[in-house]
Design goal:
Strand content: 15-25%
Distance between the termini: 29 Å
Low-confidence stretches: none
Structural class: alpha+beta
Number of helices: 7
Helix content: 25-40%
Shape: globular
Number of strands: 10
Strand order of the largest sheet: 1-6-7-5
Mean pLDDT: 97
Order of helices and strands: HEHEEEEEEEHHHHHEE
DNA sequence: GAAGACCTGCTA
DNA sequence: TAGCAGGTCTTC
């Protein structure tokens, strides 16, 4: 389930496969609710004939800039993925010029496509992208101190910093040696600085390794080529409850924090 | 904050 | 068969 590194990997691979610059020749919608809020007919009518001028990522959003001036915004949510070959869970298919076909698959049907004049209607609600130059240590301190919430759910709040999900949030907290339930306004400057560095580090590593895939199953993350991400080897805590902490050797503990499964090390991430 | 909603597939 | 899953939104 895609967080920033997984989305970034998909975007890079689609660009490498030459998706940009192609004309949309036709559209097939297999699960109408994928598109929000337009009907499949209106959506298709407005994008067919346009070309995909540019593809980029902001947070966990994918942006397809169209030659019409409109933008398709795609959020993969829990199980969305892209492929250039058909599969059993395809929900939306774009037939592109030159015979390239873009298949959007989504077993759990949570992913959403939106067609907007101005991407700002979605992106303005986001904090800085975690791997952009707008994400600064000083800004991060201010954003975290504005709240008095537990640190982990705040990291998952995309209006604070855009791109983290459950895996990389747990990894960043472990890296920075911060307990997930620590209140954000109780974090010292040093702790916030460590956390900032940790966020950037775990996400960069994730991108370098083409994302994190866990377990088997078809709603498990795969890149555009259908290949699993290699970052699983780098994961220190997520999904490793009961095993020993790679840093201090204590037994990693799983709990529920703000309704999300959370793994941390009681030894080196003290309250 | 918490709980439910949106969905299906996999594991125990 | 129950419970769980990497995301987000809505409604208490």
């Amino acid at each position: 389930m895609p967080e920033l590194p997984e989305v970034e990997t998909i975007v890079r691979q689609l660009c490498a496969r030459g998706v940009e610059g192609r004309r949309i020749e036709s559209v097939r919608v297999d699960w109408p609710r994928t598109i929000e809020p337009l009907s499949p007919a209106v959506f298709s009518e407005r994008i067919v004939g346009a070309s995909l001028d540019a593809l980029e990522r902001v947070g966990k959003w994918m942006l397809f800039a169209l030659s019409t001036g409109e933008t398709i915004l795609v959020h993969l949510r829990m199980s969305g993925s892209f492929s250039l070959t058909p599969g059993p869970y395809d929900r939306l298919v774009l037939m592109l010029s030159g015979g390239l076909v873009l298949y959007y698959a989504d077993p759990r049907k949570f992913g959403r496509w939106r067609l907007v004049d101005d991407p700002g209607v979605v992106l303005d609600a986001l904090g800085p992208d975690a791997l952009s130059s707008e994400f600064t240590c000083a800004g991060f301190r201010v954003a975290m101190r504005r709240h008095r919430r537990m640190t982990k759910p705040l990291l998952l709040d995309q209006s604070v910093v855009a791109g983290l999900g459950n895996i990389y949030a747990d990894e960043a907290l472990w890296e920075a040696q911060i307990h997930p339930e620590t209140r954000s306004d109780m974090l010292t400057d040093m702790a916030l600085d460590r956390l900032y560095v940790a966020i950037v580090k775990v996400l960069r590593n994730g991108v370098e390794n083409r994302g994190t895939s866990l377990g088997a199953g078809r709603s498990n993350y795969r890149d555009v080529e259908g290949v699993a991400g290699a970052n699983r080897e780098e994961v220190k805590v997520y999904g490793r409850a009961g095993q020993s902490c790679p840093r201090c050797g204590a037994v990693l503990k799983k709990s529920v924090v703000a309704q999300r499964g959370t793994t941390h090390c009681p030894g080196c991430q003290p309250r």
